[in-house]
Fold these 2 entries.
Entry 1:
Amino acid sequence: MSTEIDLGLGVLDHQLIDSEGRRCGNADDLELEGVREGEPRVVAILTGPAAWRGRGFFGRLAASVVRGDLVRIPWEEVAEIESGVHLRKTARELRLGRGDDRVRRWIEKLPGSSL
Amino acid sequence: MKNVFGIALGILAAIGGFVDIGDIVFNVAAGATFGYQLLWAVVLGVGGIITYAEMCGRVGAVSKTAVFDAVRERLGFGVGFVALLAGELVNLMTLAAEIGGVAIALQLLSGLSYRALLVLAVLVLALVLWLMPFQWIERIFGYCGLALLVFVVAAFKLHPDWGAVAHGFVPSTGSGNGWVYAYFLVGLAGAAMIPYEVYFYSSGAIEEQWGPKDLGLNRANAVIGYSLGGLLSFALMISAGALLLPQGINAELLGTAALVAEAPLGQAGLILALVGILFAVSGAAIDSAFAGAYSVAQFFGWEWGKYRHNAGAPRFTLAWMVMIVLAFLIVVTGVDPIMVTELSVIFSVVALPLTYIPILLVANDRAYMGNYANGVVANILGVFYLVVVLVIAVAAIPLLVLSNMGQG
Amino acid sequence: MRLSELLGLSVHTESGGSLGRVHDVRAELTPRTLKVTGLVVGRLGLLERLGLGAPTSAARLRTRDVIPWKDVLRADRRGVVVRDGAKPR
């Protein structure tokens, strides 16, 4: 069972959502393989500030201001594509949303952080 | 359970929450300068925010994506980034103006020092944002903002020339300095259509967990709630026109706005006016802080929303905290908050096209909206207001200069 | 190769005729894979940049011309070259 989709319109820049429904970044770029061999396919989603470098002038500008690694999500981890890209594992397992984890550590110290 | 009662409550909150410091400043100043001649400008602005708020609410309810999610998905990284920067700059200026307005209102009520009250305002706003659930915030500040209805009473008690008032609803070029008139026209329409409102409204739809079944509620909030909210703007201008213009009083202070309610209604009028201003402007401060946090979180794909709780959306929470601190730093320099208000409205006007164009695109996109995409009416209004917004965006800064910021 | 490198590349035929630029990449999504099937090519006008001239259906597709990948001879940083007579469907 397959559907047709346009990568720029339907996948690129869309929200990544982990298996628990948590938002954990955007699909900042896609890694293709087999372009030269004539059998191109998407093998991974690239996310993180380093991935913005390929996104034009403002991408490079943003990448130089914001520090952060590039995280590579193999395409097998994608469960389905609705509006967002739903992943098979949790954000933690895929090394996503670590910015939120870092900030959460000190927010949790404040009383009322669960409100 | 969205029954009639629930809808009525939502409308009440929308009415009380409609007015912000920009509306107050521009409506009172326009009344003091041009009497009732610019009432039609308010109608124009209110029509615009109704059109686009309804679209934003529908986009949020049906596609479960907020405006800024969609901006990046639809228009790409570059366009989205520029829209983000412009939007955040404007949100920050608006927030600074609202916080300044809160401090002035507190000063008029308490007589304490402005700077001390700035600190108090910021602390209380941060506490409210930290402790209260989304729905409570909207309801409480919305309902208490209804105290502004005192201006409707004041407008009647001041016995304006209702014939002249009626004339004011007809578009005209006005009498007096043309540049100043045009400046107020842009400011009044812009103050009604300010960007943080639409960013906030679409994210609010998701905070409130709206779905397609809530589209009636959305429409009621936007159409009825904001129309009646517009009545408050009319009341401000009419009262100011009836009281200030004949006496040649310049409306450069927020206190003058409150006096407009005191003259016909005495102490009670003054207190109600100040309380109404306090809650309406505080509500606007909260909404613009949220709007700033929503935008940046949505662009970068972070978790966001008060419904995720503070620790559940850490960078989003940090974002609104940073917004408040930055806004505080702007106003604590002692800059005139009324001037910040006027500048924030004018710069918002310049950013309006970049805000509204993506909304119109997404609201028409069937991949997001399915069968709920814009119909003919929404599109006619949407395109009409897009043209309006483009025109005033181009005219805004030149008019700011040519009219000497409304001073002539 | 990354998608960002492919988007916006100029597209020419073997004999040098210009077909415009790559607007988007058409792919086939299955439960486990995402295979590229063609290129959405055309003049990169303002409308295309804004995503207009795009879906009237619920599918996330641009309705503009797609050149099937089998007609693509080469695609790298220099640009995309397709067979003469390759027709966008």
Entry 2:
Amino acid sequence: MTSVEVNDLSKNFTLRQGLRRTTLKAVDRVSFDLVPGRTVALVGESGSGKSTIARMLARLEKPTSGDIKVTLDDRTPVRRSMYRRHVQMVFQDPFASLNPFHSIEHHIARPLLIHHRTSGRKQTHERVLQMLERVNLTPCEAIAARRPHELSGGQRQRVAIARALAPGAQVLIADEPVSMLDVSIRLEVLNLMARLQREDNLAVLYITHDLATARHFSDEILVMYRGRIVERGPADDVILNPQHPYSKLLALAAPDPERVGKLTSSAAVDHMDLDNSVTYDHYTATWSSASDPREPAATR
Amino acid sequence: MPNLPPGTEPSIGDSPELLATENAELGVEPRSAWRSLLPTLTPPLATGLSLTGLIVLFGILGPFFVQDPTVIRDIGLTGPSAAHILGTTQTGQDVFAQLAYATRGSLQIGLLVGVLATILSAFFGIFGAYAGGFVDEGFSLFSNVILVIPGLPLVIVISGFVPQAQRGLWTIAIVLAITGWAASSRVLRAQTMSIRDRDYVAAARVAGERSFRVIRVEILPNLLPVLASQFIFAIIFAILAESGLSFLGLGSAKSLTLGQMLFYAQNGFALQLRALWWFLPPGLIIALFGCGLSLINFSIDEIINPRLQNARLYRKRRKLAERNAS
Amino acid sequence: MDTSAPRDASSSTEQKAVLTVTDLSVVYEVEQPVAAVKNVSFALARNEILGLAGESGCGKTTLAYAINRLHTPPARISSGDVVFHDKDGGDIDLLGLGDEQLRMFRWSKLSMVFQGAMNALNPVISIRDQLEDVLITHRPDMSKRDRRAQAGRVLELVGVDRSRLSSYAHQLSGGMRQRVMIAMALLLEPQVMIMDEPTTALDVVVQRDILREILRLRDEFNFSVIFITHDLPLLLEISDRIAIMLDGEIVELAAGKDIHRSPQHRYTKKLLRAFPSLTGERGDFIRTGVSDDLTETK
């Protein structure tokens, strides 16, 4: 079992406009934990920084500051070279995350071989078929021989999940895994991920902009706005009793058929004025200032 | 391989999934990866391959079966006859023999320049784009500068600089290669940058692949069609540019090429003397070879942009459906 | 196929339909012809928002294109009628219009906001030029000053500042570009607007703002909307009636609240279950392996 501890993670990007340079703080001092058996949802709009966090956890980007500690059950840290064996990622776009040139077998066999999960063609092939069966992609032999463009979006995403679990990963980063899938397929894929989590006791980070699935799919929700976490707490608490103005805005904005007619009754909120420097923590029921999380800000 | 960004709901014209489902229904076997890198044999491709194939064969094997092209005879300018299939030049040299050797010479230059230019453009384009950062900026700036310099005048100047006696095939080839790689490198750079940022390259890195394997296994297969296309362009460019150079008298003095034949024909007033058999064949070979190569390139375009292939297949199937319906 | 006779849920005083589609079928003429739209019939009332829900491949976009006669080969309308009931009186048979009449009809009586509309703006000409282009084409006798005024007016209507007229497409955010597309569709004050996934690529907060604008504009200008999307909860909030499409057919057509409270067709039920309620039940999501929630707290 592997846990991940993210401390004060930040990422700055330098934007160039002609000769001027500005610094964009894509992620600003974010901290959270991923523990086996729990799903943490990272909710926010595009530009909030959640994808950047995913890329940093997948080691596709280097953090500007802060650290990511990956530890085994007995608190021993995981070596850098073994990082990718423990932490894996499922990408958002099922159409782009598989190389159109290679067969499905190749996509799953490569991680198996790189991380020495199997050796030799026969063993690898058998394990590939096993993994395909695990993600409900049958008939396995036929699917293994096909290439990505011969599969539907939902099937491709299952292949992506199988690929992520192939190295024996214990921590799964799912970056909007179902937002590009058909509506009725989303359910299947999310339930599949839930089953795999139960079976393998995975720690899952579920990144999404969809509050509804975040609530029903995860134990804890972190709401991100402009690079900072503005609210955190158990899923039900954050959704049903949001404290931060931005969380309230998100909850209001999500389509809710129970609320027919209220669309035009609520005035448009100018969300340029929202303050992302304060965070509400449902666990401790306190507000804190983002500049110094140890110092609680004045309660609202 | 598709370099199309995943977009909105695809129309039936550009839906590979729809095509795949159709193929499955029709019982068409899915192709293996390498096979699908090759273009489908359509009439234009068949024509292109035949033209280039025949000319290449002529260039390779021709010189073994013809007379000595350099023998000067007393007969002067004569038309096609039994002894000389394509007649003779002003100095009594056999045109057909010259044609065979000239084709070989031009092909040699074409191939040489093609390879050299492609290596240069691949280095500056692909490597620069994958490395990113200052390397990319530097290489890009360099290619743009070379691109902006007017090609033909530069070639003429460099060519004229080298004394005639030393102007061999290799000199010409190198001169053409260093002036002709820049445009291609821009294309390769753009393509590499587009592929480099794709999710599947990132996914390969996350899965744990090393950099060189990522380039070799993930990026290169998707670059091959563009690379092949640029290679063919380079050959066409080389042959035409060399012909131009030779026509101006700046070509390689040591070996005979199609351009050289045209140069001598021009000097010998072939046009005025109505000696079609002298200047028409070399010109025709240049044109046909260029045409053949371009046809091959169009077929490669289909691989680079699968939408073209889908569009062609739907046209074909619709025609078939109409014919079946009537 | 079950098309329950459309119950008139519209509360507007004008009950007459503005668009009637009868038995429309569209076929893709490929080697094995594919029926993309099968015998679809519905009537769009004046001032009504009709939601068209379905997943990719169900034919909703093909239907929208066919109504507009925007479909291209290999798509072909194999049967059916589309009749537009002009408010100035008279019925127009859309499928029988000649090219010139069709051109005059399009945009002035019925306009469309396309899927991926954010990328449908011309990147090299300014917003003002694009808006004025529409006016030049359809109202050639309008003076330049009037055109400019109308372009500015319609932009302000959708909530974009008039000063943005001189901007180019890439200088606007996604939400703003979408508003410009809606403005363009509004220019000639059509009676029907077809919107194909207008807010799909936008953030949920921006989406909410755009929907608010659309409702407000509908109230002000009295046009009908056919709103095509896969987001059923969204439709449940804003539509008067909703049509559910599956495999080219309309499997259920009823008022929004009826679809929500008592869905009839099993596909409608399946679609509803795929959207867990934000504040209510979890639907078919089984995260912890049991249907009751046993969330642990820290």
